[in-house]
Amino acid sequence: MTRRMTRRGFLGTAATVAGVAAAGWVGGAHLLAPGRPELFLPSELPLPPRFRSPLPIPRVLDPVRRAADADYYEITQRIAELEIIPGYRTPAWTYDGSFPGPTIVSRSGRRTVVRHRNELPRPTVVHLHGGHTPADSDGYPMDVTVPAGHERSTAHSGHTGFRSVAHGHRDYSYPNSQRAATLWYHDHGHGATGYMVWHGLAGFHLVHDEEEDALGLPGGEHDIPLMITDRSFAVDGSFRYPLADPQLHTHGVTETYMNGVLGDVILVNGAPWPVARVEATRYRFRLLNASNARRYRLELDPPPPGGAALVQIGSDGGLLARPLPRDRIDAAPAERFDIVVDFARYRPGTRVRLVNRLGSGPTGEIMCFEISGPVRDSPPLPVRLSSDPSLDPRRAVTTRDFHFQLRPDHGWTINGRPYEAGQILARPRLGTTEIWRLVSDFRHPVHIHLDPFVVLARNNRAPGPFDSGWKDTIDMNPAEAVEIAVRFTDHPGTYMLHCHNLEHEDMSMMADLVTEE
Length: 517
Ligand code: C2O
Ligand code: CU
Ligand code: CU
Prior knowledge:
mainly beta, Immunoglobulin-like, globular, binds CU-O-CU linkage, binds copper (II) ion, virion, copper ion binding
């Protein structure tokens, strides 16, 4: 381990991380035994009634300035007291005072610059998930912004592991040279991402383009982002999260939860089991599973006559080639599914629940829709959505293997190694196609930064039903070998590859990859 990367007394050392993970291994293995009911972190307050809170829609952020070639935004990261559970105050870590943070709307090919001011009590890192972003704006975990006025304490505790330190604020510059897609931004602090995101640091960033404009998809009030998260609350209304060390000197959570923290309150756009009044017409929903570790199997109950309630039109990386009618959607952490639901297929007055078939009791329900009349016909979906070509695996120049494993000595690892900044696991050449073989022990939602990929096979068979289109996160089942085709285009530099179960990520299932010209 390099001294340079060690930060004692702040986020802890890699040695401590390995220690925590090793201690947790025996218990962890026990928790992962097949057939064991899911272990969740129970809330200490009475759960609120379901389907009472109105669905919040995150506000769209206005630029502070528009220039000829770029739009400029400002976001202040700060603690805000939110009323999430009616009658309780929750101190949340927010982007600009809300959870989710404000939505940023960009045009493909037009630059967006976001100045993030840090007024939180800790260093922060912002990552645009799904962004085709130059390395210095990608939110590498060692590129931190320390809160203004904290420079001294930072220096005093000897935090020497950072690659770049901004004081008070940092400008993140996104060229948006990518297709229309549902992206999201969230904190990526080294070893603390689970804690930071759980406390509220996540928001949407949407990219639009002309190909999408030409399709006449439901827009405006009929295009709604839905951020689904599970959380637990302490008796005073604060978020409950089982940090291994409340001072955050060591990474991750207590051994009981090392396989991921699951809450018992489902929030959509920050409200518990909300209700949305909708018209009897078509809606586009941008589903984002922003949960730390929970997977969902989403269905509408009752389904509309004839089934196929959820028509998938997009994946992590943007529009699919054609719409795919589905009865359900399985969503792992960080995955996005753009879907169209036609509420005109229901009788006005119907109440339709969005349910989670992988949950039970409170976690078996997500939100509900109350359909009001009159029925409004809307244009049918086009048969073809996008002509964006896929990757041809026959052109691959390299094959690489990545093993995602729990190791008794090191915790959650990739190719046997816990994360160490600066240790490079792969050096793909820009512009070339490669085959990556990902092999799992347990469930891992594996995410790759910079460019989306295409799923070729699962266990030598066809890809799964939810692998269609361009992906940046793949929901790996236990003991599975997945083949994907990756191609990084422009932007040389250091990027990340990691499990997006945020507790696995924090407890070191992450690696650096360096793109080279
Ligand atoms: Cu959504 Cu590297 O993360
Ligand atoms: Cu990402
Ligand atoms: Cu994992």
